[in-house]
Amino acid sequence: MIQGRVLVLICVLILAVSASVSETIRQIPLMEVGSLWVKAVETLASRLLTAVTTVPDMTDPLTYAKLAVLAGVLYGVWAVFFRPLNRVRKLGDIGYIPEGAYSTKETASMVQKRRKVGKIPPPYPNGWFGIMESFLLKKGEAKTVSMLGQNLAVFRDETGTAHVLDAYCPHMGANLAVGGRVLDGCIECPFHAWRFRGVDGKCVSIPYTEKIPDVARVKSWPVCERSGWIFMWHHAEGADPTWEIPRLEEVDSGAWVYRGRTEHHINAHIEEIPENGADVVHLGHVHGPIMTAGVNLHNMWDKWWSFAKHHWTANWQQCPEPDGHVGALKLTHNISVFGITIPMMNLQVSARQIGPALVYLEFKSFFGSGVFIQTVTPLEPLLQKVVHNIYVTSWMPTCIAKFYMVGEAIQVERDVMIWNNKQYEARPMFVKSKEDSLIAKHRRWYSQFYPAKEKNESIFQKDTLEF
Length: 467
Ligand code: FES
Ligand SMILES: [Fe+2]
Prior knowledge:
The chain has helices at residues 2-25, 30-53, 61-81, 104-114, 249-253, 272-275, 280-286, 398-421, 434-446; strands spanning 85-89, 127-133, 142-147, 150-156, 162-166, 181-183, 186-188, 195-197, 203-205, 223-226, 229-234, 256-266, 308-318, 326-337, 340-354, 358-365, 368-380, 383-393. The strands form 4 sheets. Strands 1-12-18-17-16-15-14-13 form an 8-stranded mixed sheet. The protein has a 4-stranded antiparallel sheet with strand order 6-7-8-9, with no helix packed on it. It has a 3-stranded antiparallel sheet with strand order 2-11-10, with no helix packed on it. A hairpin with a 7-residue loop joins strand 13 and strand 14. The protein is globular, with a radius of gyration of 27 Å. By secondary structure, it is of the alpha+beta class. The chain binds FE2/S2 (inorganic) cluster (FES) and fe (ii) ion. The site of FE2/S2 (inorganic) cluster has 9 residues, from loops. The chain crosses the membrane at residues 64-82. Its cofactor is Fe cation.
């Protein structure tokens, strides 16, 4: 039904534009524009019919060139209209303004070296963290992952269950996931074939002895697979999970379908990213200029784009117990062009920050409903991998979902430029206002995820960025 509305709208727009252009430039009376369109469609249809019913002359080299162009065009149409989005921006791709003769990547390296880190909260909070999207780990596959100061072996057994173990084998230290085979719910070390059970990390087989010492085991981490993600529970003192990741009914039932992902690598402390949700003032400023003005904070104020603007309202609050680990954000968005609001661009957003590193951002729009799932994963103390997935009502055209996702990515990339270049301000200079007190409230809420006393976890951050 919505797709029908979109098609009618597009046709009306094409007719309106062509009619006014024809009349003003080519002096064709409006009445004749319709018959010109009919003739043009007829000619195109008859040419297409001839092309598909005529056997091509395969001795003519031009035929191959035409077929190649046709294949390219068809691929392009498929890619734009049907292929899910995959937008990846690594550190140094964006988020820096090149200094002098230096490239963006060189500037990234310099900015990181000279930034004062100062006093920062613990870099690895307690909670559930996204490891990878489920589709990235097939049955029988093992992958090595570094995050939260840990080296991990992540694998999916033959029944489809995902497991996470410490990566290094206690025998002689081989990395289990680098060449290790997945067999009978276990991972087999690639070096001397000791086997470790996925559920608890216990060694269950050593090929050259019957006696398996009880201490022969690796640490296994609590895992939860939900909403298209494999999550791992991290707790600095080793405590068991104290809350569950909620399900998204529409995603589980297939009512909302996957339409793409974005991935951004950001040089900042993890808390900076969720804190954005309670920072209502930055919405109007950083995210006010229209998305076509781009992601460079320096250029986006170009007056050529000032005719259109994003408008936001937002409110954030902590949920009552037993959901004290959840923050709720209500957001509205619209776009005005020459001061006139475009109703098709309105969004009503209801977001939940679930613990330190996961957000479900559900939205309602003119074209249907959906959700952005955001995960933040600390790869190093000041290096975050932020991934967004979008799921939308199945009848929403893929290109519309991709448009939402690109729009969202552009807004995130403006934040990335702020995050990459700022320092964590442990004692911010807040002024007496509702706006700043909301950020203070968010800081108090987020502090529940920090370990009571910081554990001496292995830190393997590089001091510098090298490209
Ligand atoms: S190092 Fe793993 S079995 Fe020897
Ligand atoms: Fe933002």
